Amino acid sequence: MAYPHAHPREVRLLSKYFGDEDAIGIEGWAERGGYVALEKALEMGPDEVTEVVKESGLRGRGGAGFPAGLKWSFMPKDGKRPNYLACNADESEPGTFKDREIMRWTPHQMIEGIIICSYAIRAQHAYIYIRGEMVDVVRVVNDAVVEAYRKGYLGENILGSGYDLELTVHLGAGAYIAGEETGLLSSLEGRRAEPKVKPPFPAQRGAFGMPTTVNNVETLAAVPHIVENGADWYRQWGTEKSPGTKLFSCCGHLQRPGNYEVSLDFNLKELVYDLCGGPPEGRQLRAVIPGGSSVPLMTVDEIDCDVSYEGIEAAGSLQGSGGLIAIDDSACLLRSIRKMVDFYAHESCGQCTNCREGTVWLANILRRIERGDGREEDLPLLLDVGANMAGRTICPLSDSAAVPVVSGIQKFEEEFVAHIKDGTCTAVR
Amino acid sequence: MSDGLHPAVVSAQPSQRDEKNPDAPLFEGEYQDRLEKILSRYPFKRAALLPVLNMAQQVRGWISPDTIKRVAEILELSPAYVRSVASFYTMFQLRPAGKYLIQVCTGIGCDLCGAEDVVEGLLKATGTRIGETSADGKYTVVEVECLAGCGFPTMVQINDRMYENVKAEDVEGLLKELD
């Protein structure tokens, strides 16, 4: 069974078995080469594994793009305190649905990555912090974890190596901010998912006060491929600064929405128009958000760039989580921006004043403009509030909330002006 | 292991069943066993708070003031602390919902593809307003933030089941399927 809209121009490393029911269970996964990388890793030393991942240039796929191997290398090696791994499966960035598909179709790909990473960072207990809302996916992951225990890939003396690892699936309870790494750790400790000031970084003081590595599902799912085939092999894709492949979750006004895995030097415009088929018949795209609602909006003229971290940044936005949202000319862009800001207003944890107040004020002002009561001073006011939200809080949620508003005004000012001056919308109904 | 659940996954059991029993005893029988398994996975008791609240919700259908008190006792926390945590997370129901809690994603991905019409259809079909439980106690419809299925709009979650690609015209069939 072909996964919906698979495309020949994709490079399907992580997504190769999406849509293949037989790859979900451990037997089927083993037949497809599963857990071979784990055997190889256990024959290497932990630091050797970290070194391969470092050399591969794999960067964190949760949004920040921090080099994974480097992150692992910050973990203490003295064994004085227990080390932990937290797999961040709290996928909730609007527009992003890649981790969900990795877990739903290839849970063992993620689990194998978790075991290898835990071994490399000398953790003896790992947690999968999984979004509570993903009820169907949670069942798949639970079954896979139990299978891995039964096969001896988890528990004591894994494959006779002398290495022990416990893995616990921990259910989130509905909070976007638990996807931020220190928010996740707060939540794992039985607290409100409030982010913490860094430093100390999680590698020094993380889960339960102990050294912890937090990695995204997609990052960990890439690890077995890298360990099995080597850093140079992984670097055949992508760019010098952004090696490998990445999943892009594409949604909104597209003919073929879905997940596409491409080499990181793939062209963004071709991803949108060729792989996803562009907007529905008779429509024109107006805006593309390439990395989840936290990254700047792009005009269609800006998207002729490669999808690497540096490529999208040079073109005026960010790769973020790879959650691509396409918006065509049928939509009121102001409403779309307001919906995104509403999300952040709802999800602000409330610790920092600028975020707690700023998100709500942005949403209120946008709502006022949307219903035709906008004032001329609203644009400078929105920009002023936005400026006071950026870089002034414990975590980046506040920045994220200001991004669609500020980039929206910069790139689509006519949309705001039409609403404020004429009470009309530039959408083509 | 009385109920056969592996300790690794006891902390991750979906908690919105169709059958809700608000007066069911907490932490007895198989749930006493589950509680012990949960506690064995964390270095201190407080860390078990989310899984324990989740389990309590699975048993009773919501988190009542009495549940908060019991959870606080068991984990050696204050009821105020437990409440402050429970109220932070949207999945903990601090008020009882209908038999079917219907959560419609109205995040940006679904909004662009007609989520508003799905919400409207559900409210009309159930004769309720947002967050209100229908007179027969069967349905509560709420809007929720992004359910991470933006490529399959509109995402609708009913209790522990997920529905993809729901259109306004599917609403009636969907509700019929529940009974």
Automatic annotation (TrEMBL), chain A:
<dbReference type="InterPro" id="IPR037207">
    <property type="entry name" value="Nuop51_4Fe4S-bd_sf"/>
</dbReference>
<dbReference type="Pfam" id="PF10589">
    <property type="entry name" value="NADH_4Fe-4S"/>
</dbReference>
<dbReference type="InterPro" id="IPR019575">
    <property type="entry name" value="Nuop51_4Fe4S-bd"/>
</dbReference>
<keyword id="KW-0288">FMN</keyword>
<keyword id="KW-0560">Oxidoreductase</keyword>
<keyword id="KW-0285">Flavoprotein</keyword>
<dbReference type="GO" id="GO:0051287">
    <property type="term" value="F:NAD binding"/>
</dbReference>
<comment type="function">
    <text>NDH-1 shuttles electrons from NADH, via FMN and iron-sulfur (Fe-S) centers, to quinones in the respiratory chain.</text>
</comment>
<keyword id="KW-0411">Iron-sulfur</keyword>
<dbReference type="GO" id="GO:0046872">
    <property type="term" value="F:metal ion binding"/>
</dbReference>
<dbReference type="GO" id="GO:0016491">
    <property type="term" value="F:oxidoreductase activity"/>
</dbReference>
<keyword id="KW-0408">Iron</keyword>
<comment type="similarity">
    <text>Belongs to the complex I 51 kDa subunit family.</text>
</comment>
<dbReference type="Pfam" id="PF01512">
    <property type="entry name" value="Complex1_51K"/>
</dbReference>
<keyword id="KW-0479">Metal-binding</keyword>
<dbReference type="GO" id="GO:0010181">
    <property type="term" value="F:FMN binding"/>
</dbReference>
<keyword id="KW-0874">Quinone</keyword>
<dbReference type="InterPro" id="IPR037225">
    <property type="entry name" value="Nuo51_FMN-bd_sf"/>
</dbReference>
<dbReference type="InterPro" id="IPR011537">
    <property type="entry name" value="NADH-UbQ_OxRdtase_suF"/>
</dbReference>
<feature type="domain" description="NADH-ubiquinone oxidoreductase 51kDa subunit iron-sulphur binding">
    <location>
        <begin position="334"/>
        <end position="379"/>
    </location>
</feature>
<dbReference type="GO" id="GO:0051539">
    <property type="term" value="F:4 iron, 4 sulfur cluster binding"/>
</dbReference>
<keyword id="KW-0004">4Fe-4S</keyword>
TrEMBL record, chain B:
<feature type="binding site">
    <location>
        <position position="150"/>
    </location>
    <ligand>
        <name>[2Fe-2S] cluster</name>
    </ligand>
</feature>
<dbReference type="GO" id="GO:0051537">
    <property type="term" value="F:2 iron, 2 sulfur cluster binding"/>
</dbReference>
<dbReference type="GO" id="GO:0003954">
    <property type="term" value="F:NADH dehydrogenase activity"/>
</dbReference>
<keyword id="KW-0408">Iron</keyword>
<dbReference type="InterPro" id="IPR042128">
    <property type="entry name" value="NuoE_dom"/>
</dbReference>
<protein>
    <submittedName>
        <fullName>NAD(P)H-dependent oxidoreductase subunit E</fullName>
    </submittedName>
</protein>
<keyword id="KW-0411">Iron-sulfur</keyword>
<feature type="binding site">
    <location>
        <position position="110"/>
    </location>
    <ligand>
        <name>[2Fe-2S] cluster</name>
    </ligand>
</feature>
<dbReference type="GO" id="GO:0046872">
    <property type="term" value="F:metal ion binding"/>
</dbReference>
<dbReference type="Pfam" id="PF01257">
    <property type="entry name" value="2Fe-2S_thioredx"/>
</dbReference>
<feature type="binding site">
    <location>
        <position position="105"/>
    </location>
    <ligand>
        <name>[2Fe-2S] cluster</name>
    </ligand>
</feature>
<dbReference type="InterPro" id="IPR041921">
    <property type="entry name" value="NuoE_N"/>
</dbReference>
<feature type="region of interest" description="Disordered">
    <location>
        <begin position="1"/>
        <end position="26"/>
    </location>
</feature>
<dbReference type="InterPro" id="IPR036249">
    <property type="entry name" value="Thioredoxin-like_sf"/>
</dbReference>
<comment type="similarity">
    <text>Belongs to the complex I 24 kDa subunit family.</text>
</comment>
<feature type="binding site">
    <location>
        <position position="146"/>
    </location>
    <ligand>
        <name>[2Fe-2S] cluster</name>
    </ligand>
</feature>
<keyword id="KW-0001">2Fe-2S</keyword>
<keyword id="KW-0479">Metal-binding</keyword>
<dbReference type="InterPro" id="IPR002023">
    <property type="entry name" value="NuoE-like"/>
</dbReference>
